[in-house]
Amino acid sequence: MGMDVYGKNPTAEVGQYFRNSVWGWHPLADYLTAAHPALTAGCTYWHSNDGDGLDDAGALALADALDADLANGTVALYEAERSVYLAALPMEECWLCSGTGVRTDEIGVQNGLDKPRDPVTGRGGCNACSGTGQTEPSARHYPFEVANVAEFARFARHSGGFEIW
Ligand SMILES: [Zn+2]
User: Fold this and answer.
1) Residues, CB within 5 angstroms of ligand 1 (ion)
2) Which end of the chain is more exposed for a tag (fewer CB within 10 A), N or C?
3) What is the C-alpha to C-alpha distance for residues 13 and 98, in angstroms, rounded to an integer?
4) C-alpha 80 to ligand 1 mean position (Å)
5) Span from the CA of 142 to the centroid of ligand 1 (angstroms)
6) How do residues 102-161 score in pLDDT, each as one tens digit?
């Protein structure tokens, strides 16, 4: 599953198509709308596959703003601060075993995951959290990278306007 962004009237090959996984698209769209609320206001549905987007002038203005952000270090700083924030997030209670570290559901019992994990053999315990009862914060599954912003800026500049599907 991913987000497909199509150039409406591309002026170069790079402006024909841009794709991110859903995981990568949401942080990118978050950045665009947070950093440039006025320039992104022409599109309402940044986070869904509704075919919303920006027209040619809007895409070009956004590309200019992103290139400026990239050049002056704003995007790099955002990425760095986001990494610090994500690293500091607490672990989350495991959704599969409700934090107990063992699975007492049918599949868990069938596979011997209903006994605490043996640290020596690695057997037993919940398979989602390795028996610890905790999983990584889900926010860490959403990557944000400077290179991805640069790629999107190149696409937007040559897209002739775009639609998000
Ligand atoms: Zn678990």
Assistant:
1) 94, 96-97, 126, 128-129
2) N
3) 49
4) 30
5) 21
6) 999 999 999 999 999 998 998 999 999 999 999 999 999 999 999 999 999 999 999 999
